[in-house]
Amino acid sequence: MHLRDLKQYLSELTDNNARPWFVMNKPRYDILREEFLEVVTDLIRQITLFDKQVAACNPKKALFRINRDIRFSNNKTPYKTRFSAGITPNDLRRPSAGGGPTWYFQIDANGILGMGAGEYLPPAPRLKAIRQHVLNDATGFAKILKNKALRATYGGLTEEDKLQRPPKGFDPDHPHIEALKLKSFFVWTEVELDINAPDKLVPQLAQAFKDALPLVLWLRGVPDIETDIPE
């Protein structure tokens, strides 16, 4: 992929975030979008080497639209200033859709590569099930938090939107109470994109995702709250 061209395009889009500019530059967007699709297709093949469940993921469905949903936002700019994709076994990328853990990455207008895995702001029933799984598998969860590869790449679970107090019904003295306050069970890291080495992008992403594999596998083992966890 022409990463330098992508960064330039996204930078210009940031300064001209309006439909007339987008329409005039649609040929550029179409080319970059197709190249990005090739990256995602290759990445899925690489992830399949350690996570066979994503082998059937449709690369086209893994790509996020560049159009922003502005219905409930004060920011009325129509376009995202990043290219992004989410890879799951069932092509459901959004936690609100019950898609489970996701392999996600994005490239933004500043040339920053963001990559992460897990479940970001899952809906309430799913979050409750994950928290219950922390209680039921405290030993397994502790191993994930101590995993050397995961910690080296990501540092730990993201604490964005973390609760100030323990969630209702959970023991405030539980050894994992800080994790139980989380609203996401997701790891995330950002690095500067090497625009001069496009061939390194997919291997870099694949390795980062492999480092997060223990978290993804643990999340896939979370029982369905409707069938396995009493109300």
Helix and strand layout, with pairings?
Elements: H1 3-15, H2 19-24, H3 26-48, H4 59-62, E1 82-87, E2 102-108, E3 112-119, H5 124-136, H6 138-146, H7 148-154, H8 177-180, E4 185-192, H9 201-211, H10 213-220, H11 225-228
Antiparallel strand pairs: 1-2, 2-3, 3-4
Helix pairs in contact: 3-9
Fraction of residues in helix: 40-55%
Ranges where pLDDT stays below 50 over 5 or more residues in a row are 93-97, 227-231
- Please count the beta strands (DSSP E, at least 2 residues each): 4
What is the string of SSEs from the N terminus onward?
A: HHHHEEEHHHHEHHH
Structural class: alpha+beta
- The radius of gyration is 19 Å
Question: What's the shape?
Answer: globular
Beta-strand residue fraction? 5-15%
For the biggest sheet, the summary is: 4 strands, antiparallel
Number of helices: 11
In the sheet with the most strands, the strands line up as 1-2-3-4
Mean pLDDT: 92
- What is the CA–CA distance across the termini? 49 Å
